[in-house]
Design a protein that fits this description.
This protein is α+β, with helices and mostly antiparallel strands. It has 3 domains: 74 residues; 139 residues, Immunoglobulin-like (Sandwich); 127 residues, Conserved domain protein (Immunoglobulin-like), CATH 2.60.40. The strands form 5 sheets. Strands 10, 11, 12, 13, 17 and 18 form a 6-stranded antiparallel beta sheet that branches. The protein has a 5-stranded antiparallel beta sheet with strand order 1-2-3-7-6, covered by helices on one side. The chain has a 4-stranded antiparallel beta sheet with strand order 5-4-8-9, with no helix packed on it. Strand 1 and strand 2 form a beta hairpin. Helix 1 runs antiparallel to helix 2 and helix 2 runs antiparallel to helix 3. Keywords: Membrane, Transmembrane, Transmembrane helix. It holds the Pfam family DUF4179. It comes from Paenibacillus glucanolyticus. This is DUF4179 domain-containing protein.
């Protein structure tokens, strides 16, 4: 629902004036905030909100803490979105939904070494992925983001990375991505992990190394699964085609993420090398099985991919795929495996297609 923010603030301002006990300091802060909003050029409002929120929040805390809040003021505050949230402004659709539904933890931790400050401001964990906002600031004012600096370091052959620990143990096999935010916050990135088998509550330690200083930047963050609404699906039996035995080990649905874990094996007793060698070339790229998956709901809507990772050991190949959630919870999920033809067109493999009902 769209709201006329200026109109609501004017109403709140007028209503606040009717409260006789409102202290002069709060009145001055509110008047100052209104003038800033009214006089700010439209093209700068999006960037300005981040700093402005501190003043607005301080005023709100003083008003609410003192008991000076009217119904109109309460309604106006409730209808103001969290405009300073990078997840809400620049995240994928799942992170935006998580922000709207209150699934985000405000971390607000900063560590400084040798004129460089690294901050983690927001974090979301829904049982499928961990996403966090990483911001880098320097006293020289260049303020290159961690991702920008990492790209340059990679070109030079330097080490520039992040390590993650869960309850003191280094995180093992997991997918990892880092996405630049852009004009909204050019020195920030959204870092996303897709680990398996984490508990609903744990302590996450983030250690950042190699950013032109010898001392690592260490963060310790209590993390809790924030997805109250979640569904876990799996295939009842594997599909078999061209020596490929495929099953959906897990398909998790939360308001923020859809995560699918696919297991692929060959014939019983085949080791991984023998299995891959026996698979037709149309399913392989450089001796590795390269099948992608289209995820569709009962309306025919196709989910947007957020990335994937794969690994192999023993006789199994395991792939983890992440997708943006559908606008509404689906009644069923269809998983359509495909490969690209030589003409770069999708060639579906109907023999390996799965239909997964979603329980209410």
């Amino acid at each position: 629902m769209n709201h006329d923010l200026n109109h609501e603030l004017e109403q709140a301002k007028d209503e606040a004036g009717e409260v006789q006990q409102l202290p002069d300091t709060i009145r001055m802060r509110l008047d100052h905030t209104y003038r800033i909003i009214e006089n700010s050029p439209p093209v700068r409002k999006k960037r300005y909100w981040t700093g402005l929120l501190v003043a607005v929040a301080a005023s709100g805390l003083l008003i609410i803490g003192s008991g000076f809040i009217s119904p109109v003021m309460a309604e106006a505050i409730k209808n103001i979105p969290v405009l300073g949230s990078i997840f809400l402004n620049d995240g994928d659709e799942g992170l935006k939904t998580a922000s709207r539904q209150g699934m985000i933890t405000e971390v607000q931790q900063s560590v400084a070494h040798d004129g460089i400050t690294i901050s983690i401001s927001e974090l979301m964990y829904d049982g499928s992925r961990i996403s966090m906002v990483l911001t880098r600031q320097t006293i020289d004012g260049k303020n290159e983001s961690f991702g920008q600096l990492g790209s340059k370091a990679s070109q030079r052959g330097d080490v520039n990375g992040v390590q993650f620990y869960v309850d003191g143990e280094e995180l093992g096999n997991y997918g990892y991505s880092i996405t630049g935010v852009g004009d909204g916050a050019p020195n920030s990135d959204i870092v996303t992990l897709s680990p398996e088998g984490l508990p609903d509550e744990f302590t996450l330690e983030v250690v950042i190394r190699g950013i032109s200083v010898s001392e690592p930047f260490r963060f310790s963050i209590p993390v809790k699964n924030s997805a109250a609404d979640r569904a876990v699906l799996k295939s009842e039996e594997p599909k078999i085609h061209d020596n490929i035995h495929m099953e959906i080990r897990s398909f998790k649905i939360t308001p923020a993420t859809m995560q699918m874990i696919v297991s692929i094996t060959g014939k019983p007793g085949q080791d991984l090398k023998e299995f891959i060698e026996s698979v037709p070339d149309q399913y392989k790229v450089e001796d590795f099985i390269n099948i992608d998956y289209e995820v569709m709901n009962e309306k025919g809507e196709i989910a947007k991919s957020l990335g994937a990772m794969g690994s192999g050991s023993g006789s199994h190949l395991t792939f983890t795929f992440m997708y943006e959630p559908f606008p509404t919870k689906p009644k069923s999920i269809t998983v359509r495996p495909y490969v690209y033809s030589s003409e770069h067109k999708k060639k579906y493999i109907p023999e390996l297609e799965f239909n997964l009902p979603v329980e209410e």
